[in-house]
Each structure stands twice: as structure tokens, then as C-alpha cells.
Amino acid sequence: PQVVLTRLIQSGGDTLESLRTRVLAAFDPQSQFDEELHRRLDVLVARGELAVEEAAAWLKKLTSQHEPPPPAQPEVSETSDIDALLRQVQALEAELEALKK
Q1: Distances (CA, A) of 65 to 7, 23, 62, 88, 99
Q2: Which of 3, 27, 59, 81 is the most buried (most CB within 10 A)?
Q3: What is the DSSP secondary structure assignment for residue 27, as one 8-state letter?
């Protein structure tokens, strides 16, 4: 575990942000999907491969076909485990900021 944490700190904020995104995606995978869809459509528009209107139409088609999932009922232990992970990520971010100074 110490080696993993050391590598996370050494690799910088991008890795920590990726870890945070993945942990939070466990709570709301549909939101994660929507964000990635937005990002990919924006890239296509920026490249000129897709018109803004086409991107908006695809976004509407792909996001309106799904029903929101029922609210998850996590067990207490799972919630506390995730809270502990989030606290560790925050501590690592603070250490990283201190190292940058």
C-alpha cells in the first residue's frame, strides 16, 4: 500500500483526480456516462467532425433513452469504506500541494 500511495503522489494530480472520479462514479454511474458522452461529443465538434447541432441531437438521443436508476441502498460498511477512501484521497491531495510549494 505504501508503494501505491508513493506512486500516486509522484504521478501528480491527474492520477488523484482519476481516482476521485472513479470512486464517485460508483455512486452515480449514469452521471459519469453523461459526462464522458459530453466530453467525446465536444472533441468531435472541436475537430470539425460533427456540427454543434448534430452533437446536440446525438446527446438528446443518447441521454433520453435511459431511465434513471433507482437510488442505491449501500450498506453501512460500504459507505464508511468509501468515506475512508475519500479522506485518504483528500489527505494525499494536501500532501501533494505541500510538496509543490
Answers
A1: 40, 25, 6, 37, 46
A2: 59
A3: T
